Amino acid sequence: MISLYSFGSSFGVMDPSPFVVKVDAFLKMADLPYEVKSGAHNLKKAPKGKLPFISIEQQAEKLIISDSQNIIEHLTQNHSITLDAFLSAEQQAQAYLLTKSLDENLYWCLVYSRWMLDDMWPLVNKAFFSAIPAPLRWFIPNLIRKAVRKNLHGQGTGRHSKDEILAIADKSFSALSILLGDKAYFYGEQPCSFDATAYSILCQFISVDCKNEFNDKARSYANLSSFCQRIEKQFY
Length: 236
Ligand SMILES: N[C@@H](CCC(=O)N[C@@H](CS)C(=O)NCC(=O)O)C(=O)O
Prior knowledge:
The protein is of the alpha+beta class.
């Protein structure tokens, strides 16, 4: 049995981490049986200190794999998954680089929009920290917010103004919208693993039950909104 370790549903999506949703959507598209084990405590068990990770129990052995990319590659190779078999080698290479663009660029815009916008902070605080007992609840959230600010600064996105970060995010939304065009999925009429990746980050802006300028910008692309709805209708 495959177990996917997640944070747990927040903001009306399966998980607030796009990397967790990516693996979840992939598992659904690949039609593999799995269970989700939710809770922030999973971070303590995570071999690399990040979610997601999966465990696979086979006979007496338990295999643990971290990182959404490694997980998808492992499952594809070891569970006869043919989701990407209809893509040419060139398309697969492009999909890999597109994935890394979303993981390493648009993701940080999401982090900024969640953690740094003052309007969002009360919602994030409630969604992520309400289970922490007082008095820890009075200072832990602010400490973590400070650490996220430092990470954003170190990675570089945090050195831009809000409007500049919104413009960076919009470059990705616009590029994704052009790439998708009027197709049902990014590479045609059937989904592949890149659709799981694109959905996992787009749903964090489009399908969530909160509203900020970043969400509004993503939602202004009608084909991206329809894409999220299509995946949710078919797989969720
Ligand atoms: N490259 C990793 C990134 C995973 C990642 O950054 N996860 C974040 C949540 S979105 C996390 O677990 N953060 C917790 C922490 O850094 O303490 C993947 O693709 O799975």
